[in-house]
Amino acid sequence: MIHLQNVKFLNLIPPVAIKDNAAFVTTEIDTKGYDYATFVVNLGVTDIAMAALKITECATSGGSFTDVTGLDADGDTDTDGATSTLPTATDDGGVFVFEVDLRNTERFLDLSATAGDGSAGTYASGVCILSRAHDVPVTAAERGCLNILRA
């Protein structure tokens, strides 16, 4: 079995125009049926530190989301044991990852990402990969994709 073939991909931040001093429009994630989530944020060009980058949770869709303990890039401890920091103006092309054990969170998760107030702003995109499915997704649509190619 190839484990990455048994996951669901979800678009968090579609590639869009650069943001300056504004929140990115994100998509909340329904985690029902999965035990693990990996949020991947890809940075493009940025001219200033981001103002926020964290994962939030809620029991209901569209409800009031709160911060997930340990998943704030502004001060929580990373996997190396260091204090995390928000992406800065020198992090162009960087990848930021949040790994979430869903057995310890509310059902709905969202990424909170806000660009800092610079002269141009921040370009970013993001995806969420849900894994350890209770019922393995098989088709491209079940896996959150328009198409899947395999060689």
Describe this structure in words.
- By secondary structure, this protein is mainly β.
- 0% of the residues lie in helices and 40% in strands.
- The protein has no helices and 8 strands.
- It has strands spanning 8-13, 29-30, 34-46, 52-58, 66-72, 95-101, 108-114, 122-133.
- A hairpin with a 7-residue loop joins strand 4 and strand 5 (66-72).
Describe, in short, the structure shown.
By secondary structure, this protein is mostly beta strands. It has strands at residues 8-13, 29-30, 34-46, 52-58, 66-72, 95-101, 108-114, 122-133.
List the helices and strands and how they pair.
Elements: E1 8-13, E2 29-30, E3 34-46, E4 52-58, E5 66-72, E6 95-101, E7 108-114, E8 122-133
Antiparallel strand pairs: 1-8, 2-7, 3-6, 3-8, 4-5, 4-7
Number of strands: 8
In whole angstroms, how far apart are the ends?
15 Å
As for the CATH topology, it is Jelly Rolls
- Sheet/helix structural class: mainly beta
**General form:** globular
Keyphrases for this structure?
151 residues, mainly beta, 40% strand, 4-stranded antiparallel β-sheet
